[in-house]
Amino acid sequence: LVMLKLFPEQAVPSLNAALSLMLCLMFCSNLVGAALSAQEPAQPGDAAARYYRFPLPLTTALATKPVLADTIAWRIQAWLKIMERTDVLVAISMAADEASLSRWRSLQVDQQTRRKYSEALVLQEINLTQQSDGLKPALDYFDPLAGADHGRDPGKSQRGKRIRTEISLRIEYFDGQTGTGLGFASVRGFGLSGSPHKSKIKALHTLYEQLMLELERIYGTAADLALNADNKLTVALGKNDWVEPNDLLLLIAPEQLAHYAKSEAWQPAGPAGLARVTGAGDSLALIKIIRQWRPLPTGSFALPYSKPLFSLSLQAQPPLFTPFAQYGLYLHGSALADLDFNVGAHLIRTKDSDDHQDWGVGFSLSGRGRLGESRRMDTGLQIGIGLNLPMRKDDQGATVSTMLLSAQTLLTTEIVLSYRMNLIIGAGYHWSTRSTHWSYSTDEESYAAYWNREAPEAGRKGFIVTVGYRYCLF
């Protein structure tokens, strides 16, 4: 003001410059404040500030049309009941508008009800999309043709096309007493088929598999894989979790990019390998991976595996070094144990002393001891005994047979091809008794074979090779 009175001509430009400088400083300070606030970490959600409801009761499912969220919530409730986690509340997020609050008022969860549970699992966002040849119609759960052109024949319009369905789900976990957020998870399922309905069913099936793994990870006996100071693989499971040495663990890999497909193709979370516990403390165990068929990136975890380990194998022993061949089907009792027993039935083809090709059947009992193992391959020694019944025609045209006892040893190698499939390669030696006592039966009577010459002798021994596949039933 003094400058304005004494030097009116010079004061006006100076005052304008000062005002411009003040406005510039205020604008810059606002930008800095906005940037700093944007860098602050997001706070976990608070259940007390949300609206959510119980799933529809199953008794009213026929009278009230359920939505996809109710169907998923029912499945989660069933799994948690099997896992004996009835202290977990399963709820569905609600919109805060008057229509939603009025519709679901009778099922709305209040704070008093929530505090009866130790934890709340809330389904927050569920999206279902279907795509065919680049088109993305707006489809919903109960009307797979919603948003499509109903004036056209859907069967004709979809013939020869592949429909891809994706169902994504976001789950949030809250503390039942305080309502504070504990974390969240995103789960999705994919389905690909020639019809929208089949594609949706496949996507739901995949989604349920992913949900089951998520529940096992959160509420089951699960632990992340880690490396200790000696670079050995460990899991935070021990004797307190009923985990003992030589127990098996199922290794689960998280969702990841498929290494064999396009960059946008995702491989869902699922089993990636099996490990054996080599040492167990109260709360920590050392493990060794004995079977692996997909990568184990960060975020992989382990679950105790106690299901039966039966497997089937189909093996062939071609007549390469001796005139004896065997083609059999075998049932194995403990596919991943150090000692594996199996029983089998097989067809045989052998030559007798007349150089005649004899066909027959046989049965065997074998045991295989593991000599060495790795993630992709193991080696073992197999010893077995068998009973073979070769058959041929005698000189009167009757079909006759004889009985042979056999034994064989094999050094076998199994190579992991996939989750359940192994390639079997082996070599060894086959012994057999010899017999000239051929006979046949009619009307419950047994008769000796008739020969115009000396009876042919059956029974061969020699080196053998075997090749086959094992299918694991786990």
Outline:
By secondary structure, the chain is α+β, with helices and mostly antiparallel strands. Helix content is 19%, strand content 42%.
Shape: elongated
As a percent range, the share of strand residues is 35-45%
CATH class of the largest domain: Alpha Beta
Helix amount, in percent? Answer: 10-25%
Mean pLDDT: 81
Structural summary, described in words:
This protein is an alpha+beta fold. The chain has three domains: 47-219, Double Stranded RNA Binding Domain (2-Layer Sandwich), CATH 3.30.160; 223-258 and 265-305, Elongation Factor Tu (Ef-tu), domain 3 (Beta Barrel); 311-472, Porin, CATH 2.40.160.20. The chain is 19% helix and 42% strand. It has seven helices and 24 strands. The chain has helices at residues 2-6, 8-39, 68-82, 98-103, 111-114, 154-158, 196-219; strands at 52-53, 88-93, 119-132, 163-175, 181-193, 223-227, 233-235, 248-253, 256-257, 266-267, 270-280, 285-292, 301-305, 311-317, 324-332, 339-351, 357-373, 377-393, 399-401, 404-416, 421-432, 439-442, 445-448, 462-472. The chain has an eight-stranded antiparallel beta barrel. A hairpin with a 6-residue loop joins strand 14 and strand 15. Helix 3 (68-82) runs parallel beside helix 7. It is elongated and about 100 Å long. It starts with a helix and ends with a strand. Residues 1-13, 27-44 and 134-159 have low confidence and may be disordered.
